[in-house]
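Just wondering, does anyone understand these tokens?
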Amino acid sequence: MDTWVFDLDNTLYPSDARVWPQVDERITLYVMRLYGLDAISARALQKYFYHRYGTTLKALMVEEGVDPHDFLDFAHDIDHSAIRLDASLGAAIERLPGRKLILTNGSRRHAENVAGKLGILDHFEDVFDIAAADFVPKPERATYELFLRVHGVEPARAALFEDIARNLTVPHELGMATVLVVPRIADPYREAFEQEAVQEPHIDHITDDLAEFLDRCVMPETRTP
């Protein structure tokens, strides 16, 4: 491997960072205000959109012509105080040989804010966000193909780390090594299918400790004693 590609949300930080619950709540609030709904109805509509379109943003762009930048700015206006510096993850990413990139359905600003608080941002060459993907979200094949083309990544020499199993199907078909990152303790703010340690042919590895897994990817002589 000479290129290491990471999803952001629920992959590079643990659930106690309280990032995704806040984003999820902001998305619900956006739907409430847009449609004039109560919280329960807005939540139900949000989840319907998610399952039908892959992301709420895509649904709102198709159904309502929503400005994606306005949506992302609103959804990612969160409190980052619970995110802790992750020195072990930073050290593990730094030791990986080759290029490191973030591939996210979120915004560049969101990725930079979160990775910065984790203390890992400087280890990444670039962030390929939803805007760079022309607002076509993972797991659409076009998004992965565009990412590989823009960054000149050879899929057979690249690994992708993701928290949702379905987002690894196309990368595996394209020739990438795939790693599913699952939580050690179930996160009550996420749906069960998003946290499953799915045993499928398109998933090469599964880990609940990303830093430890990355450390095992490094040649022994380069590891910290």
Notes: The chain has a mean pLDDT of 94.
